Predict the 3D structure of the following.
Amino acid sequence: MEKLLPEELADRVGRLERECLDLRRANRHMKQFGGLTAVVAVQMTMEGSRHPQIVLTVNRENQVALSLLDSDHRPRIFLGLEPDGSPRLRLQDKDGNSLFQAPMEPNPTLPSLLKP
Protein backbone atom coordinates (compact mmCIF):
# COMPACT_ATOMS: atom_id res chain seq x y z
CA MET A 1 0.00 0.00 0.00
CA GLU A 2 1.40 3.35 -0.98
CA LYS A 3 1.80 6.22 1.45
CA LEU A 4 0.09 9.43 0.46
CA LEU A 5 1.02 12.95 1.32
CA PRO A 6 -1.66 14.98 3.11
CA GLU A 7 -2.29 17.05 -0.06
CA GLU A 8 -2.75 13.91 -2.17
CA LEU A 9 -5.08 12.43 0.40
CA ALA A 10 -7.09 15.66 0.53
CA ASP A 11 -7.35 15.66 -3.28
CA ARG A 12 -8.60 12.06 -3.30
CA VAL A 13 -11.16 12.76 -0.57
CA GLY A 14 -12.34 15.85 -2.45
CA ARG A 15 -12.69 13.87 -5.68
CA LEU A 16 -14.64 11.13 -3.88
CA GLU A 17 -16.96 13.69 -2.31
CA ARG A 18 -17.65 15.24 -5.74
CA GLU A 19 -18.32 11.79 -7.24
CA CYS A 20 -20.66 10.95 -4.37
CA LEU A 21 -22.54 14.22 -4.89
CA ASP A 22 -22.80 13.53 -8.64
CA LEU A 23 -24.21 10.05 -7.93
CA ARG A 24 -26.76 11.48 -5.49
CA ARG A 25 -27.88 13.99 -8.12
CA ALA A 26 -28.17 11.27 -10.76
CA ASN A 27 -30.14 9.08 -8.35
CA ARG A 28 -32.49 11.96 -7.56
CA HIS A 29 -33.03 12.62 -11.29
CA MET A 30 -33.74 8.93 -11.93
CA LYS A 31 -36.29 8.86 -9.11
CA GLN A 32 -37.98 11.96 -10.52
CA PHE A 33 -37.97 10.46 -14.01
CA GLY A 34 -39.38 7.18 -12.70
CA GLY A 35 -42.13 9.00 -10.81
CA LEU A 36 -43.01 11.09 -13.84
CA THR A 37 -43.08 8.00 -16.04
CA ALA A 38 -45.38 6.21 -13.60
CA VAL A 39 -47.75 9.19 -13.49
CA VAL A 40 -47.83 9.42 -17.29
CA ALA A 41 -48.41 5.66 -17.61
CA VAL A 42 -51.30 5.74 -15.13
CA GLN A 43 -52.82 8.78 -16.80
CA MET A 44 -52.59 7.22 -20.25
CA THR A 45 -54.11 3.96 -18.99
CA MET A 46 -57.03 5.81 -17.44
CA GLU A 47 -57.71 7.71 -20.65
CA GLY A 48 -58.60 4.58 -22.59
CA SER A 49 -57.00 1.81 -24.55
CA ARG A 50 -56.78 3.39 -28.02
CA HIS A 51 -54.02 5.86 -27.14
CA PRO A 52 -50.26 5.51 -27.47
CA GLN A 53 -48.69 4.32 -24.25
CA ILE A 54 -45.42 4.61 -22.38
CA VAL A 55 -44.36 1.50 -20.47
CA LEU A 56 -41.57 1.41 -17.90
CA THR A 57 -40.42 -2.13 -17.12
CA VAL A 58 -38.05 -3.50 -14.50
CA ASN A 59 -37.72 -7.25 -14.04
CA ARG A 60 -35.89 -9.71 -11.79
CA GLU A 61 -33.03 -10.10 -14.29
CA ASN A 62 -32.07 -6.43 -13.73
CA GLN A 63 -33.38 -5.40 -17.14
CA VAL A 64 -34.81 -1.90 -17.28
CA ALA A 65 -36.71 -0.60 -20.28
CA LEU A 66 -38.78 2.30 -21.52
CA SER A 67 -41.10 1.36 -24.37
CA LEU A 68 -43.39 3.50 -26.47
CA LEU A 69 -46.42 1.67 -27.86
CA ASP A 70 -48.66 2.90 -30.66
CA SER A 71 -52.45 3.18 -30.30
CA ASP A 72 -52.79 -0.53 -31.18
CA HIS A 73 -50.37 -1.42 -28.32
CA ARG A 74 -47.59 -2.46 -30.70
CA PRO A 75 -44.06 -1.66 -29.48
CA ARG A 76 -42.55 1.04 -31.69
CA ILE A 77 -39.61 2.39 -29.66
CA PHE A 78 -37.66 0.40 -27.09
CA LEU A 79 -34.84 1.78 -24.95
CA GLY A 80 -33.44 -0.49 -22.30
CA LEU A 81 -30.55 -1.94 -20.37
CA GLU A 82 -29.66 -5.61 -20.59
CA PRO A 83 -28.76 -7.53 -17.38
CA ASP A 84 -25.06 -6.80 -17.96
CA GLY A 85 -25.81 -3.07 -18.14
CA SER A 86 -25.34 -2.71 -21.89
CA PRO A 87 -27.83 -0.38 -23.60
CA ARG A 88 -30.23 -1.39 -26.34
CA LEU A 89 -32.31 0.79 -28.68
CA ARG A 90 -34.80 -0.43 -31.25
CA LEU A 91 -37.22 1.36 -33.58
CA GLN A 92 -39.92 -0.76 -35.23
CA ASP A 93 -42.56 -0.25 -37.87
CA LYS A 94 -46.21 -1.16 -37.27
CA ASP A 95 -45.57 -4.74 -38.41
CA GLY A 96 -42.75 -5.27 -35.90
CA ASN A 97 -39.96 -5.00 -38.47
CA SER A 98 -36.78 -3.37 -37.21
CA LEU A 99 -36.14 0.08 -38.70
CA PHE A 100 -33.07 0.76 -36.57
CA GLN A 101 -31.32 -1.11 -33.80
CA ALA A 102 -28.28 -0.44 -31.68
CA PRO A 103 -26.23 -2.43 -31.13
CA MET A 104 -26.64 -3.88 -34.60
CA GLU A 105 -27.53 -7.57 -34.85
CA PRO A 106 -27.51 -9.68 -38.03
CA ASN A 107 -30.94 -11.16 -37.23
CA PRO A 108 -32.67 -8.71 -34.88
CA THR A 109 -35.11 -10.20 -32.44
CA LEU A 110 -37.70 -8.59 -30.28
CA PRO A 111 -36.10 -7.38 -27.03
CA SER A 112 -36.84 -9.93 -24.30
CA LEU A 113 -38.73 -7.38 -22.21
CA LEU A 114 -41.21 -6.91 -25.07
CA LYS A 115 -41.91 -10.58 -25.69
CA PRO A 116 -45.42 -11.64 -24.66
Observations:
- The helical segments are 6-46.
